[in-house]
Structures are given as C-alpha cells and as structure tokens.
Amino acid sequence: MRQFVITIRNRIRKKLRKEGKVPSVVYGKTVGNEGLAVDAQAVDKLFRSEGRNAIINLAIEGKKKYTVMAHDLQFDLLKGNVRHIDFLEINMNEEIDAVVPVILKGAEQVETGDTVLNNQLSELTVRALPNNLPSAIEVDVTKLSIGDSIRISDLAAAAKDYTILGDAEDAIVSLSYGSQETAAPEGETAADTAAEPTSTDAAE
C-alpha cells in the first residue's frame, strides 16, 4: 500500500504537467468524482516497481483516504510518460477486473534461425480480489515447437487466485517459421522483377 497526499488545483493541464504533476480523476461509490493532480515522479516510480495494478492509499486534502487503483492510463506517445490517470475506488473484499501484461519467458531460446514467436495477446484481463491481482503473467515458451501455440485455456488451469477472462481458445503466443523473401531469378534484381508488367498490365 502506498500513500499519496493529493492537492486539488484549478489549473489547466498543461501548466500542471510543467509543474511535474499528472492531471487525474478519482471516482467510486464513496468518493463520487473528484478532479486532482498527482506527483509525476511518484506515480512513475510506483508503476515501475509494482506494476500498473498497484493498490494505492489515496489521501485527498480535507477528505478521508481512499483505496484506489489506476483504472486507465494515458501516455505521451513520444516521451512515454503518463499524461492522465483515472483512479478507481475499490473494495478490498470485492473482485475486480484488471488488465495484466503478458511476459514471455525463454523467448531467446526458441527464436533461433528462421523461427519467430508470434505474440498475439500482450495483455490479458483477469478477475480477482485486489490483493490477488498479478502484476504480470509469465508465459514459458521454451517447450514450443514449430506450429505450437499457448492458449488462454493452457494458463487458466494453473491460475489459482485469479480468473483469466476471454475466449479459452484464443492464442496468446505461437511459434512459426519467419516469412522468407522470394529470391529473384539469377541475373535479375528484385527491382527488375517488380518492374515487369503482369499479363493484365500488358493488355492495357
């Protein structure tokens, strides 16, 4: 649990960001809907160390503390830093749905030569009590052979404290041969081959 003292300010978002703050909102059954700003370095450090599903003890000036999680994060596509956060008030005794990143374990052992891992699902939605939410789900790919895949159903059986949502047959990752470029005939370059007209072009 982390505690942040939040200062509510009536300033434009651009100015808040220049001050090292992240414009945010918190909502829930008891808190209602409150606009606020949080320290950018503090939340960045928190998410890096504990993941985006970290449980936060949020203290708003003049009000009581609220137990929250980051429900939605908006990022700066160029800088990669958080630009806006939607905090959701949670009940520690009630299950919630959360998005969890997928981490492939042993990828370097199977991606050799012309084989390639196809990571179809980089995130999974899980349902659990807040304290049981995983920060990430590791998927061991070291035993995959060409044509093999790991599906949600393969992970669901091993999940003890949480439920993985989604179609059980959806593939998370698979192993296949990499695409090979077609070689141009001897004496011709790829550009020469691409420039040759098709039968349809020649008829026009």
Automatic annotation (TrEMBL):
Keywords, A to Z, come to: Ribonucleoprotein, Ribosomal protein, RNA-binding, rRNA-binding
The organism's place on the tree of life at top rank = Bacteria
Q: Which residues form the Large ribosomal subunit protein bL25 L25 domain?
A: 12-87
Under the heading InterPro entries, the entry gives: Rbsml_bL25/Gln-tRNA_synth_N, Ribosomal_bL25/Gln-tRNA_synth, Ribosomal_bL25_b-dom, Ribosomal_bL25_C, Ribosomal_bL25_long, Ribosomal_L25_dom, Ribosomal_uL5_bac-type
GO CC terms in record:
cytosolic large ribosomal subunit
Q: Which GO BP annotation is one of this protein's?
A: translation
Pfam families, alphabetized: Ribosomal_L25p, Ribosomal_TL5_C
Q: Where is the Large ribosomal subunit protein bL25 beta domain?
A: 96-175
Q: Name one GO molecular function term.
A: structural constituent of ribosome
Q: Where is this region: Disordered?
A: 179-204
Task: Give the residue range of the signal peptide.
Answer: none
SUBUNIT field: Part of the 50S ribosomal subunit; part of the 5S rRNA/L5/L18/L25 subcomplex. Contacts the 5S rRNA. Binds to the 5S rRNA independently of L5 and L18.
Give a short account of what the protein does: This is one of the proteins that binds to the 5S RNA in the ribosome where it forms part of the central protuberance.
Family assignment?
Belongs to the bacterial ribosomal protein bL25 family. CTC subfamily.
Q: What is the protein named?
A: Large ribosomal subunit protein bL25
